[in-house]
Amino acid sequence: MCGIVGGVAERNISEILIEGLKRLEYRGYDSAGLALINHGQVLRERRVGKVVNLEEAVKSHQVAGTLGIAHTRWATHGKPTETNAHPHISGKVAVVHNGIIENYAELKADLQALGYVFSSQTDTEVVAHLVAEALKTADSLLVAVQSIVSKLKGAYALGIVHADYPDELITVREGSPLVIGVGIGENFIGSDQLALLPITNRFIYLEEGDIARLTRTSIEIYAHGTQAVQRPVKELDATVSNSSKGEYKHYMLKEIYEQPEALQQTISQALNGNALREDFLADAEVNFRNIEQIQIIACGTSYHAGMIAKYWAEQLIDVPCQVEIASEFRYRSPVIINRTLYVCISQSGETADTLAALRDTQKRAAAKGLNIATMTICNVATSSMVRETDHHLLTLAGPEIGVASTKAFTTQLAALMLLLLKIGQVKQRISAEQMTEITDALWHCPKVILDTLQHNAEILRLSELFVEKQHCLFLGRGTHFPIALEGALKLKEISYIHAEGYAAGELKHGPLALVDNDMPVVILAPQDDMLDKLKSNMEEVQARGGELFIFADEQSGITEKDRQHVVNIPSVNTWLAPIVYSIPVQLLSYHVAVLRGTDVDQPRNLAKSVTVE
Ligand code: AGP
């Protein structure tokens, strides 16, 4: 989703802005632009398509300047055209914006009545004109911006420059992420710290409602727009900065292969041999003792992780657990229940729907005086969700750049299991034998995944049989029903093949009608007590001519035959099997997408972090 980079320096920053935009490409976008201030003029370039198009234009027109803002746009209001691309200009003011100005139509009408002419269909352009109008009476750019933000409804992060203020970058955070990168004699802004990592590892994370004024040598921050505050400068360590593709052709493949290590990291923070570390979620013990149920809120892949946790929570520690898609939860006025642990699961920690659901829950619980606790399972330590929940558990997966979630998902599963072990221990609902069994299995998991990755070449061969297909079904039972959903999501989002995931028991309640000679059906068949029932479902598919692609436990007894392809997956403890069975569906989707020639890391129409509704 849209990306912002900006900076104020002594040197020409055009290349820094372009590099920053390239590092945000993973978020998804359809046009790019920048504006630099040079000798009292706003120099602007915008291009539809990839950042390289913008880069060529900037080079060929020799656009340079020491103050500037840049943007990748993911179209919401108005088509992905050059005139809709940011920055938007009003006289000497230039603005880039992430998020949505919900009341832009009425603001636009007011501005048009004052004589402002709009050149785009975007909601953003109103901000440029509002600032220009405010500057007729305000005595500085900062004051002008401070005076207009109260008129804006919605979620936004803004970068604003003015040709007559050549050493001043104003930025606003309200509902969309924004960080300040602190340099030496130069300062920057970015919608994601990744954009700024080549130039600094020192960051200030703005709070909602902050307005900041950056010059080359100073950073002033105003809470709620006007109250001067100091925000801490945080230094990132080198591992967080490791975000290159290395030897891999795509980030997605790299991230699939990083899973053993990512899991090892996530597990190590919580376990000491077969025991939970004493300091692991120690601050949450009182709340865990008190809670009677869990409500998980998440979107997309993170929601699938939550679905698996529901099976685990109820079977393993006897704690009722609900899981719901955040975009539904936030709008259906759910009853907020006393003594509930509300858990947000999110790779980014910035997903608009999940964040809004969390905030709404907190507000409504406070209004009713309810005793709830909130928690985030997240991959980004500095994210809004981590900062706004009572407790958090980090998935130590490292930066995930590919839009398709892979290592974030499997580490979310490991983190959820660790969380449940902790709750189970605090509530004395888990036996010593279970604790030993599951912690042993967790430690063993990275090795089983390494062994599963050995089947990559086999999976590549099978993926060739999907290239011409239009549709595909994924089937699983129990904790592998969510893996079927996740497999279908992975395949559709990166290969653009229509795919559906089903609980195999639902087959004859509808989807069986779709099965014919042309329908590949992917089966997830771990060695568990549902295996015999799953085998019957496989018979039902075969009897209708469907072609089976089965990821089966090596002890399952399922063998290859005509139109039945089998990849043997190493045996794994049943509790943790969904983590391991994620790997073959990720690899299958990856290879099918590569063979179909799609943009694997940045699939069309999608963004890595969905920070608007
Ligand atoms: C899955 O591959 C997607 N990238 C998507 O479904 C993602 O999981 C969803 O947008 C939620 O993102 P989050 O985990 O950052 O909240």
Automatic annotation (TrEMBL):
Pfam family, one: SIS
Record-listed E.C. numbers: 2.6.1.16
Superkingdom classification of source: Bacteria
GO molecular function (one): glutamine-fructose-6-phosphate transaminase (isomerizing) activity
Keyword Repeat (UniProt): yes
SIS domain location: 284-429, 462-603
Lineage per the UniProt record: Bacteria, Pseudomonadati, Pseudomonadota, Gammaproteobacteria, Moraxellales
Domain Glutamine amidotransferase type-2: residue ranges: 2-217
Keywords: Aminotransferase, Cytoplasm, Glutamine amidotransferase, Repeat, Transferase
Keyword Transferase among record annotations: yes
GO biological process, one term: amino sugar biosynthetic process
Subunit comment: Homodimer.
Reactions the enzyme catalyzes: D-fructose 6-phosphate + L-glutamine = D-glucosamine 6-phosphate + L-glutamate
GO terms for cellular component: cytosol
Subcellular location: Cytoplasm
Its job: Catalyzes the first step in hexosamine metabolism, converting fructose-6P into glucosamine-6P using glutamine as a nitrogen source.
Stretches that traverse the bilayer: none
Protein name per Swiss-Prot or TrEMBL: Glutamine--fructose-6-phosphate aminotransferase [isomerizing]
Active site: C2 (nucleophile), K608 (for fru-6p isomerization activity)
InterPro entries: GATase_2_dom (IPR017932), GFAT (IPR005855), GFAT_N (IPR047084), GlmS/AgaS_SIS (IPR035466), GlmS/FrlB_SIS (IPR035490), Ntn_hydrolases_N (IPR029055), SIS_dom (IPR001347), SIS_dom_sf (IPR046348)
SUPFAM superfamilies: N-terminal nucleophile aminohydrolases (Ntn hydrolases), SIS domain
